[in-house]
Amino acid sequence: MFDTAFVLLVIAALLVVVGFCQPLAAYLKLPPPVLLGVVGVALGGFPAVLSQLGWSARSDPFADIFVELPVSSATFIYVFLPLLVFEAGIVTDVRRTLQDAAPILLLAVVATLITTAAIGFVLWPLAGVSLVVCLLLGAVVATTDPAAVIAIFRDVGAPARLTRLVEGEALLNDAAAISLFAVLLGMIISAREPDIGSGLCEFFLSFIGGGVLGLLAGRALLAVIPWVRDDRLAEATLTLALAYGVFIAAERLFHVSGVVAVLGSGLTVSALGRSRIALYNWSFLTDLWDQIAFWARSLVFILASILVPRLLGDVGLRDLILVAVLVAAAFAARILVLFVLMPPLEFFKLTQPISSAYKLAITWGGLRGALTLLLALAATENAALSPEVKRFVAVLATGLVLFTLFVNATTLRLVIDLLGLSRLSPRNQVLRDQVLALSYAEVCDSVRDMARDHTLAESAVEEVVRPYQARIAATNARDAAERLTERDRLAIALAALANQERVLVLERSADRIASPATVQVLLRNADLLIEGARSDGRVGYRRAAEAALSFPVAFRVAYFLYRYFGIVRFLADRLADRVELLLVTRLLVDRLPGFNNRNRRLGPIFSQRITELTGEIVERRREAVDDAFDALRRQYPDYVGALEIRFLRQSALRQEMERYRALYEEGLIPQELYDDLQRGVSGTSAAEPRPRFDIGLDAHRLIERLDLLSGLDERQLDRVARLLTPRFTVPNERIIRKGDRGDAVFFIVSGAVEVALPARPVRLGTCEFFGEMALLSGRPRQADVTALTYCRLLVLRKADFERFMTANPEARDAINCIAASRQSMNLEDRDRATEAASL
Ligand code: CMP
Predict the structure, then answer these.
(1) How far is the CA of 558 from the centre of ligand 1 (A)?
(2) Mean residue pLDDT across the chain
(3) How far does residue 761's CA lie from ligand 1's centre (Å)?
(4) 705-764: per-residue pLDDT in tens?
């Protein structure tokens, strides 16, 4: 056998091939796997060619390497599978994908089952092997590799949601197919009759068990990640350990699906990690995983294709017919899923309607890749399977992979052209042009700035910027020829503006002044603005802007927990998040008008009318953000002040750190000093966690602020405090509903509410009260009362009202008097209204 050094040498040689295949594939305009496949097959066929030429392949050590593959496929599975799957999980934007969770889950799981069943039942009568084996083959080929089709969709500007759907589906599809594969393999090995009921049950158990394990493992990792204190190398190392650890634990310890567990942990890290790992560390992590998965995918491909000539050496006509049937069945199953399963989902609005052209493109783009080969290898290496079964699975799966690689992958662009999907819509075309034009404008700007800083000649500047200006002019001329409506142009300008916002967020995040979680929310908001503007223009942009200011689900959950279970902590944390988010959003939106108005950016590209409109829209957005922020600031000025200080201090520390780095890099301070200084700064910045938010719901402290009770002494206050319970409300929350039975009176300690009286709304503010009339008169509530701001109220329940009134005669008189005047005011209003009606 070969020694380790030799195996490594072979791998190194293969990596050289992989490395060169990338640029070559780009040059030949071929998908890289196609080229890798060709090279692999050529390498694998080499010994056969040698022996044909009369040289003995056996005695030639070079050919032996490829004939006797030095790495067994069990190694393949354990080494490569966790890597491939974990990467797929970690790069997924889970929150986005979750929006389409129902269709994705349904499509992935049901599609896998349908594909497996279709292929199994079609091949069974022809293949001469048992049904389970045919089903096993079905599971092996049910995985799809969406990379090619997604790359093209991105190029042609397909709706983002559609791309996400395809991505998400492929992701879960792999997990479902591999779990199913494991279940079927178990059945074959234990020579059990295929029993659909218990098979499905086992499948779901292993799927769900794997998912839960992955989720827990992912959470555990995130719990320990803070210990490595932002060290990106350590963070990346832990994720690698997680991928392998959870795979082995699932397979060997818990006997659930290892792949699903790895995927689950990858998705968990992706969903929660983005907000716990600093943005720059996060991109390092995903870049690293991209690299790892690239190696894994390429090596699997090339090693598997080296095996192809040997596998297909004795292929006969019958095998070819079976491959043809398999190809037909696989595509028919995909068509069935897309054209029969999707329409109900579209009907129930569970997913965006997908045009038939796109469905056909998705069908044709259903390539089979590294995972299919890996599963086929796993089957061939399994000693418990008979040689016919191994051969059947290996030959057919490889045949399908080769077919999709050489036929589908190479013609995918052509098919997309034929389906009429490749031409960017005029709107997208102009959008792309304008984004480029904006970059040219930016280049011109920075050249001018630089010339000014270094007092360079104006003529030199003109010389350099002329070609860029020519390009901008050409773009404008071309786009002007496109007959776009004013509406389309506005949509494009707004999308460009939202794009700029995204860039600003990324710049800000480098300063580390916002927490990673806030940065993620800001990025997502910017993406929603871009998508909104692209799909629905001004309305879409406005809708996205409103959504960005609304209370997110986490806030609502926290509020629910506060309201019904009295848990304040989560609500306080979410309020703190909101302050931080609004603080940074305000900074961003403040910078947009500069981008919009200065005649340097949007100015030269869009007409004045458009920039005026975008200016107005941005202005309105700024007002909305200011209002939202002020609403919080007015109630919690101390907290906002503390946060502003922290915000400034963080950015000062950041700058300090940068200065030290510059000094160190220029050789002005030695390494030890630099390390010391740096440690000092990171110690200070880490030592300053976000201040804790205090909602301020201490009954005693609140009572002191009520004028109505100012005459009470210490003991009386104490007694009253026991009767009153604090309550917090958010803006627009309805506190009292007209027509309900009265159950409490509310005193406003801070904030304002609105009483929706028929004649006109009445506003009540700090130290006023409401809800007393129903209690005094025993009649239903007279009007809706809604919070206008964040309010802190003190609530006096009906049962305690009497006691309160007797114990506090002064307050009682005041309440009675105000209630009487409100009553007479309402009666007057009503009389006036009936008079007006009778006239
Ligand atoms: P109630 O009828 O219990 O519920 C609605 C509340 O709105 C009512 O008690 C008063 O507290 C308040 N309200 C009704 N009319 C007026 C008014 N004219 N001015 C101020 N508050 C009012």
Answers:
(1) 30
(2) 85
(3) 10
(4) 888 777 777 888 888 888 889 999 999 999 999 999 999 999 999 999 999 998 889 999
- In 3-state terms, the chain is what percent helix, strand and coil (to 5)? 75, 5, 20
483-528 pLDDT, tens digit per residue, is: 677 888 888 888 888 888 888 888 777 666 677 788 888 988 998 8
**C-alpha 511 to ligand 1 mean position (Å):** 50
Tokens of 457: 């000649």
Please determine, for residue 66, whether its predicted confidence score (pLDDT) is greater than 60. no
Query: CB under 8 Å to 815, separation ≥6 — which residues?
Result: 708, 745, 769, 772, 776, 805
Asked whether 735 lines ligand 1 (CB < 6 A), one says no
- Residue 723 C-alpha from the chain's centroid: 47
Nearest CA to 380 out of 437, 303, 445, 432 is that of: 303
In angstroms, the CA 501 to CA 591 distance is: 9
Residue 826 alpha carbon to ligand 1 centre in Å: 9
Q: 448 exposed, middle or buried (CB, 10 Å; 0-12, 13-18, 19+)?
A: middle
Torsion of CA 127, 129, 135, 141, to 10 degrees: -50
| 801 Cβ inside 6 Å of ligand 1 | no
CA distances 429 to 216, 237, 423, 494, Å, are 45, 42, 9, 15
pLDDT tens per residue, range 378-416? 888 777 888 888 888 988 998 999 899 889 888 888 888
Predicted TM-score of the model (pTM): 0.71
Question: For residue 734, how far is its CA from the centre of ligand 1 (angstroms)?
Answer: 14
Whether the CB of 757 sits within 6 Å of ligand 1: yes
Does residue 742 line the site of ligand 1, with CB under 6 A?
yes
More confident residue, 768 or 47: 768
* Cβ(493) – ligand 1 distance below 6 Å: no
Q: Name the residue with the closest Cα to ligand 1, atom 18.
A: 822
Among candidate residues 270, 287, 208, 216, the one with its CA nearest the CA of residue 245: 216
Q: How far apart are CA 437 and CA 451, in angstroms?
A: 21
- What residue type is assigned to position 173 of the chain? N
pLDDT in tens, 414-456: 888 888 877 667 777 777 777 788 788 888 888 988 888 888 8
Tokens 């630099």: give the residue. 674
Tell which residue, 89, 516, 8, 520, has the closest CA to residue 290.
Answer: 89
Name the residue with the closest Cα to ligand 1, atom 11. Answer: 770
Atom 6 of ligand 1: nearest residue by CA position: 771
CA 771 to ligand 1 center in whole angstroms: 6
Question: Is the predicted pLDDT of residue 535 greater than 90, yes or no?
Answer: no
Under DSSP, is residue 353 helix (H, G, I), strand (E, B) or coil?
coil
CA of 708 to the centre of ligand 1 (A): 17
Q: In the chain, pLDDT over 70 holds for what percent of residues? A: 93
The number of CA neighbours under 13 Å toward the Cβ of 702 is: 27
pLDDT attached to residue 59: 45
Q: Pocket of ligand 1, candidates 743, 748, 762: which has the most ligand atoms within 8 Å of its Cβ, to mutate?
A: 762
Pocket flag, ligand 1, residue 771 (CB < 6 Å): yes
Residues 571, 576, 581, CA angle at the centre, nearest 5°? 125
745 Cβ inside 6 Å of ligand 1? no
pLDDT digits (tens, 9 = 90+) for 789-839: 999 999 999 989 888 888 888 888 989 999 999 999 999 988 888 888 887
- Ligand 1 centre from 755 Cα, in Å? 7
CA distance 28 to 34: 11
Q: Looking at residue 688, what DSSP letter applies?
A: -
